[in-house]
Design brief:
The chain has one domain. Helices cover 21% and strands 22% of the residues. The two termini are 29 Å apart. The structure holds zinc ion. Zinc ion (ZN) binds next to β8.
């Protein structure tokens, strides 16, 4: 997203600066503060206040999708994106979203997904935000060099990553931007092997395979997150029989 700044910025006081967001977003007045700057640059991970969100253009401006911006495309190269015959830049969208942490603060979030599910995903993330459903982190996996184990240990929530299903040559639904992982540390993947051992991903998520326990960021069968994804045409990995993937939602329609 290119930002054109109008005029000379006087100081960090009560003055408002007018910015014009090129493309789909209207001109808005934004408080000139460090956090306001984070919003304008959409510095994912930063926290913002309700007042700053309002000044930026409200929730409509904070839950939106756009073609992959140049700066994001550059970030993805050799990490979440690799040359391949299945999916290209035009098939993908960059999503901006807000999310609540357990600390009660609003964070800027980002995801890359298939353009065919962008509207559904924005609806889901916005509804979760409006109901204060806690999501700890929502950064592109590129921040973690697209290493799945590392981003899951960080409890990241994400969508697109061009990769195979762990332990197989089959392309993951994440490779087409059609699967979303939410709060991945506390909602791990596991499979019980024939020899009686259990494979868990991330490996630090072992304590959270026991779903009879209560803990933060736990996704449960009838919670808002599962209900919304199912309503929007996704299946939940928590319903799988031969293995469990509690963080995973994948779109059935494509
Ligand atoms: Zn997944």
């Amino acid at each position: 997203m290119k930002i054109k700044r109008l005029g000379v910025m006087p100081s960090f006081c009560v003055l408002l600066a007018v910015f014009c967001l090129c493309g789909a977003y209207p001109c808005v007045a934004v408080p000139l503060s460090p956090d306001g700057e984070a919003l304008i640059r959409w510095q994912a991970g930063a926290t913002v206040t309700a007042e700053e969100v309002d000044a930026f253009g409200g929730l409509d401006a904070c839950f939106a999708s756009e073609p992959i911006p140049d700066v994001v495309w550059t970030r993805m190269q050799g990490k979440t994106y690799k040359d391949n015959p299945h999916i290209g830049r035009k098939d993908l969208r960059y999503i901006r979203a807000l999310h609540w942490d357990y600390d009660g603060k609003t964070h800027l979030g980002e995801m890359v997904c298939n353009q065919q599910i962008a509207a559904r995903l924005i609806y889901i993330l916005r509804t979760l935000y409006e109901h204060r459903y806690p999501i700890q982190r929502m950064l592109l996996p590129d921040v973690y060099n697209a290493d799945d184990e590392t981003q899951m240990r960080a409890n990241n929530s994400s969508c697109f990553c061009y990769r195979a299903v762990a332990g197989s040559a089959k392309l993951s639904k994440h490779a087409r931007g059609l699967a979303v992982d939410i709060n991945s540390l506390y909602n791990p993947y596991y499979k019980d092997r024939k020899d009686g051992t259990r494979y868990v991903q991330p490996s630090t998520g072992k304590p959270y395979c026991d779903r009879t326990k209560d803990f933060c960021y736990k996704i449960t069968r009838n919670d808002l997150c599962v209900r919304l994804f199912i309503e929007q045409g996704f299946t939940w990995g928590g319903d799988w029989r031969t293995c469990k993937d509690y963080q995973h939602f994948e779109f059935k329609g494509l």
